[in-house]
Amino acid sequence: MKGVASSHDGMSPVPRKKFRKPNEEKIDITEIVEGVQSGSRLFLGKAITLLESSNPSHKKEGQDLLNRLLPETGKSIRIGITGVPGAGKSTFIETFGELLTSLGHQVAVLAIDPSSSLTGGSILGDKTRMELLARNPNAFIRPSPTAGTLGGVHKKTRETMLLCEAAGYDIILVETVGVGQSETLVRGMVDIFLLLVLTGAGDELQGMKKGILELADALVVHKADGANTKLAKKTVAEYKGMLHFLQPATAGWKTEALAASSIEKTGIREAWELVRQFEKTVKESGTWEKRRQSQTKDWFRSMIADELHSRFFEDPAKRDGVKTLEQQVLEGKLTVSQAISVLFE
Q1: Residue numbers of the domain that contains 317
Q2: What pLDDT score does 21 carry?
Q3: 163-172 residue pLDDT tens
Q4: Has residue 250 been placed in a domain?
Q5: Contact between residue 57 and residue 29 where contact means Cβ atoms under 8 Å apart
Q6: CA 8, CA 190: separation in Å to the nearest integer?
Q7: Based on the domain organization, do 333 and 261 belong to the same domain?
Q8: What's the predicted TM-score (pTM) here?
Q9: pLDDT one-digit tens code per residue, 147-160
Q10: Which CATH number is 93's domain given?
Q11: Residues 217, 339: one domain?
Q12: H or E element at residue 203
């Protein structure tokens, strides 16, 4: 009979519970806040999904949620990790994360891939690439979508990071899957930035932008195992020599280089000890807090620019005006500056 569940043991039919459709479901912010504070990965996922929603009412609820959790944030070590193609970032992060959880830490991994909206990218395979860490009860892996633009990193990744901190994750690993501008953006939201490289420093530097080297607080020569072990040591020495000629990424800290192997699990603990030494040194100098304040201010200003852009193009008259003036510029009837002046009058 419709609306009841049949019984095979002769008992009376049990009325079937009626559930709201997902889009009709009332969001209980207090329940989600309490769930996140309890460390529930389920509620943390719900909270992140709410913040990522483009629904206007969800946006308001998401910000209310985040505001209520703000007192619980800011207590983690935020580590950015990037690397040249083939450097083994995912393998390193998994091995590094497993070490950290074994030491009693709660680890959250956020992966950024600006290209993922077009290709699906490796961001969709994060849990496949880090199977052990994905099953670890003390770890949380989450893709950080950029909505097809690097600007999206500012809002979504930062807010996801805050939610993870509120859930008790004391180490946040931010992986850049894409290349180029994403490294600069991630540098602007973490405390320490690790760059993974391979053996053969001379060959690598030819294909590596000097700017990326200058962002790094530590260089990890990865895959330093087997036949590569001896060459890795030589590569570390070469990088140490080169780093003398570069401006340190963090005031009061000398950029370090070390060798590591995720397969043999060598150099991984040393990498963590280097992070702790960095934390101690930079906190004592006051640079840690100054950097965080500067990053928050930059985030605030970038959000102003994002909001202005969004509201401008939400105005139908402005959108139509852009098309008309664009055509006049292409036809040589107006200069670009003249068209901009008309648009903003």
Answers
A1: 296-344
A2: 43
A3: 999 999 999 9
A4: yes
A5: no
A6: 59
A7: no
A8: 0.83
A9: 555 444 557 889 99
A10: 3.40.50.300
A11: no
A12: helix 201-206
Tally of residues, the chain? 345
Condensed to tens digits (0 to 9), the pLDDT of residues 106-129 reads 999 998 765 544 444 444 455 567
Beta strand residue intervals within 200-317, DSSP E: 218-221, 256-259
Give, as one character, the DSSP assignment of residue 266.
B
Q: Among all chains, which residue has been given the structure tokens 């996801």?
A: 160
Whether 20 maps to a domain, the answer reads no
Query: How many Cβ atoms are within 10 Å of 221's Cβ, its own excluded?
Result: 30
Per-residue pLDDT reduced to its tens digit, 20-57: 444 446 789 999 999 999 999 999 999 999 988 888 88
User: Which H or E element spans position 60?
Assistant: helix 56-69
Q: What DSSP character marks residue 126?
A: H
Q: At what angle do helices 316-330 and 336-344 cross, to 10 degrees?
A: 160
Closest by CA to 139, choosing from 175, 114, 164, 113, is 164
- Tell me: do 280 and 138 sit in the same domain: yes
Nearest one of 79, 176, 93, 104 to 131, comparing CA atoms: 93
Mean pLDDT confidence for 230-252: 89
